[in-house]
Design brief:
By secondary structure, the chain is α/β, with parallel strands linked by helices. The chain has a single domain, classed as 2-Layer Sandwich (Transcription Regulator spoIIAA), CATH 3.30.750.24. It contains 4 helices and 6 strands; from the N terminus they run E-E-H-E-E-H-E-H-H-E. The strands form 2 sheets. A 4-stranded parallel beta sheet has the order 5-3-1-6. A two-stranded parallel sheet has the order 2-4. Helix 1 packs parallel to helix 2. It is globular, with a radius of gyration of 13 Å. The N and C termini lie far apart (about 30 Å).
Length: about 120
């Protein structure tokens, strides 16, 4: 399985933001994220900006894996950018940091299109 490198792929960066100040990718919020992002990853490579997400649980991790799998099946790349320390720690503990987190991409150097997507 390949990792997204924003220097090699034209990945679109999608920030997870919310007008309701939702900062958690947890049970109850994860299905909405999958419903909105899955169609995008079927059509193109996506880098999901999690800089506003401070908490993730098993349902949230499962949703991220589902999005990664959907992208791979469609022949696209999927990665996470700007994970907060807690989210990065959870992904590392699950052994998913190398699979999901883009360590070669710096969000400030990305000049592509950016879509705002609410978490709720």
């Amino acid at each position: 399985m390949k990792k997204t490198n924003l220097n090699q792929f034209d990945a679109e960066v999608i920030p997870v933001q919310s007008s309701a100040k939702i900062t958690e990718l947890i049970l109850g919020h994860e299905r909405d994220l999958v419903a909105r992002v899955a169609p995008l990853v079927r059509g193109q490579s996506i880098a999901l900006d999690l800089s506003q997400v401070e908490r993730v649980d098993a349902a949230g991790v499962s949703a991220l894996v589902e999005l990664y799998s959907t992208a791979c099946l469609a022949g696209h790349d999927f990665c996470i950018l700007n994970a907060t320390p807690h989210v990065a720690k959870v992904l590392t503990l699950c052994g998913l940091d190398r699979l999901l987190m883009s360590h070669n991409a710096v969000s400030n150097s990305y000049s592509g299109r950016c879509i705002e997507l609410t978490a709720a």
